[in-house]
Amino acid sequence: MKRSLHLLLLLLITAVLPVAAQTGLSVTPPRVYFTVAPGQQQRQKITVSNVSKTSTLDLSISLNDWSYDDKGNNMIFDAGSTAVSCAKWVAILPSSFFSLAPGEHRDIEIQMAPPASLSDTLSVHTAMLYVSQLNPIDDVSQKGTNIKVAVRTGIKLYQRLPVSRNANLDIENFSKSKEELILQFANIGNVWADGTASCELLNKQTGKKTTLKDIIFYSLPGNKRKVFFTLPSTLEKGEYVASAVLNYGDEATVKLAELEFKNE
Q: What residues have CB less than 8 Å from 20, skipping those under 6 apart?
């Protein structure tokens, strides 16, 4: 008698996710921003959509904390466990539990209400909101194994105080390590700063320029970040000047660093 192996496959995503069983979940926008003072409240809407043509989704909404590591990767923590958490200030309206028929979408209100007694001096607080499927769908893997598929989507919540924005990054170091250039910077402003790090190499002997791959970055106040530019394996030997640029913020602020090195 052939035995079937039943597995629960949990797929964590931040955008629309279609899978073989025609299960799909979309939550927009991927980031929600609140500007609200302690003792006040603000509401924003997200739209949750069932992109499946055949499956009804039973869904729940939950909250966690999150932060970036020094490479910009997301780290997830229990709700209310970090100093920058706003998870406990969030209310989901009208309910954290609901169902969507195939093709149906629904607007959900998120209420952010920092307590009047808030005493910390942090300019930004954050949380991660998850929309999770509660009724896994039967499917078969590529190897023929019976599995159950559920989907989960996370979006980021940001809360800041209603004060003048100061997006400010400070380049702390620019160095070479083996086949990489490492640009280190810190967010010393009072708001999130997102942008692009770019780097161009100039061969001092030949004048040839080489443009390295741009790197998109995200940062929060107090974050220290490292971005790594990989040197091409075909880069000619010689002396170089590397020019790194951080381009960020609504006003396209630019910060520049230069490094001289030898490629041997």
A: 139, 140, 149
CA distance linking residue 153 with residue 132, whole number of Å: 7
Q: DSSP secondary-structure letter at 87? A: G
C-alpha to C-alpha distance for 232 and 181, rounded to whole angstroms: 11
Domain boundaries, the chain: 25-160, 169-263
Phi, psi of 128 (to 5 degrees): -115, 125
Q: Tokens 């951080």 appear where?
A: 246
Beta bridge partners of 249: none
Percent of the chain as helix, strand, coil, to the nearest 5: 0, 60, 40
Please give the DSSP secondary-structure letter assigned to residue 89.
G
What digits encode the pLDDT tens for the residues 194-250?
A: 999 999 999 999 999 999 999 999 999 999 999 999 999 999 999 999 999 999 987
Return d(Cα 92, Cα 98) in angstroms, integer: 11
Identify the CATH number of the domain defined by range 169-263. Answer: 2.60.40.10
**Whether this model's pTM surpasses 0.70:** yes
- CATH number 2.60.40.10 is the correct assignment for the domain at 25-160: yes
Q: What DSSP assignment string belongs to 141-168?
A: -TTS-EEEEEEEEEEEEEEE-SS-----
Distance (Å, whole) CA 186 – CA 240: 26
Regarding predicted confidence, which is higher, 139 or 246? 246
What b/e string do you get for 143-173 counting C-beta neighbours within 10 Å, with b at 16 or more? Answer: eeeebebbbbbbbbbbbbbeeebebbbeeee
Q: Burial, 87: exposed, middle or buried (Cβ in 10 Å; 0-12, 13-18, 19+)?
A: buried
